[in-house]
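User: Sequence for Aspartate carbamoyltransferase below. C-alpha cells please.
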Amino acid sequence: MIAESLTCQPALVSMRDLDVRTVEALIHRAEEFKHGAQLELAEPVFAANMFFENSTRTHTSFEIAERRLGLSVVDFNPQASSVSKGETLYDTCLTLAAVGVRLLVIRHSQDAYYQELLNQPALPVALINAGDGSGEHPSQSLLDMMTISETFGGFSGLKVAIVGDLNHSRVARSNMEVLKKLGAQVYFSGPEAWYDKRFDCFGQYLPMDELVDQVDVMMMLRVQHERHSDDASFDQADYHQQYGLTLERAKRMKSDAIIMHPGPINRGVELASDLVECPQSKFVEQMRNGVFVRMAMIESVLRGNQLGGLA
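Assistant: C-alpha cells for Aspartate carbamoyltransferase:
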C-alpha cells in the first residue's frame, strides 16, 4: 500500500499541484486497483458528477470508479437543475453539499472554475476537476501517464510528441507539464496557428514528418470542431494529410512506439481509421486505465477530506 502522505489530497484540480512522487503514487495505486485491490468504506459517501459539457469516457468512467469503490452516485443533469434558472455554480454546489453530497466531480466550460469553489470554506466537499474549458484535464493526464508507464516502465529519456489542436487542448496543457517533470522529452506538432509560443518552455515544435520516426509516443489530439465553428476554410482531408497520423506516416514509426489519443477520435482527421485499434494503438487501453486512475484519484480526495471513514 502506498504511503498515505502521498495519496491524501484535499482536491485534485490541476497537474501543477502534483509533484513527481505524488503522480507516481497515484499511478501505482491505479495499478493496484487494476489488479484487484479493494477499498472498504466505513461510512457512506454520496457523489455527484456535474458535467456542464458533453462527455462519454470521462463521465462514465468516473461513475464506474465511484460505484466500484462503494460510493452512492447522485444523478445530476445540468439541463434539469436550477442552473437552467440562473443559479450560480457555487450555489448549486452549496445545495448539493447541504443535502449530503461529499464528492463533486465537475467538468465546466470556464477555465479554472474551481478557484471560486476552493476559496469557500463553507463548502465541505472533496473536489475533482474533470476538465475546465481549455485549461486542464488531470484525470486524462494521469491515465495517459499510467498507460505510458505500463508500456515503457518509466519516463526518463522517452520522446513524446503531442500533435494537433494544441491551443484548445486541456489534455496537452496537463500532459506537457507532467511529462517534463517525469523526465520525458516533449515535442509538439500540428498547425502552427494552433501553437502557443508559451509551450516552448516544455518542448520543441517540429513538423510532423520530422517527428514521426523519432518518437516513442505519438499522442494525437482531437480537432475541437466546436471551438473552430467560425473557420469555414477547415478541410478534414487536408488536415489529415498535413498534420494527421496517416497510414504512410505510421509505417515510419519505430517498431516499439505507441499511438495515443484522448478521444473522441475524428477518424480520418487526426488519425487514420485503420490505426485506431492497430497493435501499436493504446486507445482502448487508455480508456480501460481511466477507471482505475479515477479510483485512485477518488480514494486520494476521500482520504484528504477524511471521508468514508478513511484515515
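The chain has two domains: 4-137+288-304, 138-283.
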